[in-house]
């Protein structure tokens, strides 16, 4: 389809349901496509994420220059660029989900910039998504991403992306800020197992999750027990939470 008006209609339809963002892969376009170049020249859109689908895990993403920005612009643009499926059609158990430190940012229980945007996706999807986009100092690692200059001022200074392989249950995923995000309990378990976050810090995170109403106090112990079991741990959620909250006091 080469009709410029139809292309523009597709762009606006996608952007309307995705906080003003549209992935180039979703549109079936590349950055050098005449339509995209024309939109950029006219100032209708801006490039929210570089178009590096052949190099990195996320393709280029455009933002329509109208209205308010997303609260997490870099993270959201990266999440949109990970797949060609529109955001509103993505299944919580069959798509890339915001996780680990990035989930902590979305819940606002972590405030420091992260080294990389972190996601969890089914193994078949995640297998080809563990490299960085140009601007990062070194190739991304699924365990130790390297920060570099460039990227977003808030979120990931390097713009790197890490996608871990895991099958998530529907109860482990919630919709926050228009993105699928690991549940509070699953996020705590992931930070504990994969990121080496200490019990005292995790206790403060749990306090913040509870005080903000992300999870109820009566539910968190059981959800932590289930999340720990899914991560191969045998910790009792109630006992662990009491210890963590005491350490944070």
UniProtKB/TrEMBL annotation:
Residues 130-156 are annotated as: Disordered. Residues 130-141 have a biased composition (Low complexity). This is Uncharacterized protein.
């Amino acid at each position: 389809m080469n009709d410029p008006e139809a292309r523009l209609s597709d762009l606006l339809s996608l952007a309307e349901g995705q906080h003003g963002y549209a992935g180039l892969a979703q549109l079936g376009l590349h950055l050098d496509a005449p339509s995209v170049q024309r939109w950029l020249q006219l100032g209708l859109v801006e490039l929210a994420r570089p178009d590096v689908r052949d190099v990195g895990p996320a393709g280029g993403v455009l933002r329509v220059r109208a209205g308010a920005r997303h609260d997490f612009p870099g993270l959201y643009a990266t999440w949109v660029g990970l797949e060609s499926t529109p955001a509103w059609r993505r299944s919580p158990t069959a798509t890339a989900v915001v996780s680990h430190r990035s989930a902590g940012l979305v819940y606002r229980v972590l405030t420091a910039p992260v080294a990389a945007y972190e996601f969890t996706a089914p193994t078949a999807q995640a297998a080809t998504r563990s490299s960085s986009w140009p601007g990062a100092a070194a190739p991304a690692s699924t365990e130790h991403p390297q920060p570099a200059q460039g990227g977003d001022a808030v979120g990931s200074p390097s713009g790197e992306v890490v996608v871990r392989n895991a099958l998530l249950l529907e109860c482990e995923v919630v919709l926050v800020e228009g993105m699928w995000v690991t549940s509070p309990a699953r996020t705590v378990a992931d930070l504990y197992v994969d990121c080496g976050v200490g019990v005292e810090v995790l206790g403060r995170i749990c306090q913040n999750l509870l005080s903000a109403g992300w999870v109820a106090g009566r539910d968190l112990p059981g959800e932590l027990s289930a999340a720990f079991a899914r991560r191969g741990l045998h910790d009792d959620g109630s006992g662990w939470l009491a210890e963590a909250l005491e350490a944070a006091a």
